[in-house]
Amino acid sequence: MYFVYVIESINFKKRYVGFSSDLENRLREHNNGETRSNKAYRPFRIIYFEEIEEKGEAIKRERYLKSCAGRRYILKIRPRSSVE
């Protein structure tokens, strides 16, 4: 089982899309600063996730959510918080 997820910075207007087989551990890694690309925007909370059986399908879904159409989809179901 894999998870495609969207996390949002609690203090900044930043979101990150990724996939993992261990969602709780991956969020912990993000919040501990173990991901260089978004270390400065900690802490994060999970705002959306999907469970997907196959790794290849999870990668495809992650790629879609990172696309322009995917970002619009995420905004439609989870508008940005009021954090400035």
Tell me what you see in this structure.
By secondary structure, the protein is of the alpha+beta class. The protein has a single domain, classed as GIY-YIG endonuclease (3-Layer(aba) Sandwich), CATH 3.40.1440. The chain contains three helices and three strands. The chain has helices spanning 23-31, 55-66, 68-77, and strands at 2-9, 15-20, 44-52. A three-stranded antiparallel sheet has the order 2-1-3. The N and C termini lie far apart (35 Å). The model has no long low-confidence stretch (mean pLDDT 94).
* Broad structural category: alpha+beta
Mean pLDDT over the full residue set: 94
Q: Proportion of β residues?
A: 25-35%
Any guess at the CATH architecture? Answer: 3-Layer(aba) Sandwich
Distance between the termini: 35 Å
CATH fold-type name: GIY-YIG endonuclease
The named CATH superfamily: GIY-YIG endonuclease
Shape: globular
Helix count equals 3
Order of helices and strands: EEHEHH
Radius of gyration: 12 Å
CATH classification, class level:
Alpha Beta
Helix content: 25-40%
Condensed summary:
The chain has helices at 23-31, 55-66, 68-77, and strands at 2-9, 15-20, 44-52. With 84 residues, it is of the alpha+beta class. Strand 1 and strand 2 (15-20) form a beta hairpin.
Write the layout of secondary structure elements.
Layout: E1 2-9, E2 15-20, H1 23-31, E3 44-52, H2 55-66, H3 68-77
Antiparallel strand pairs: 1-2, 1-3
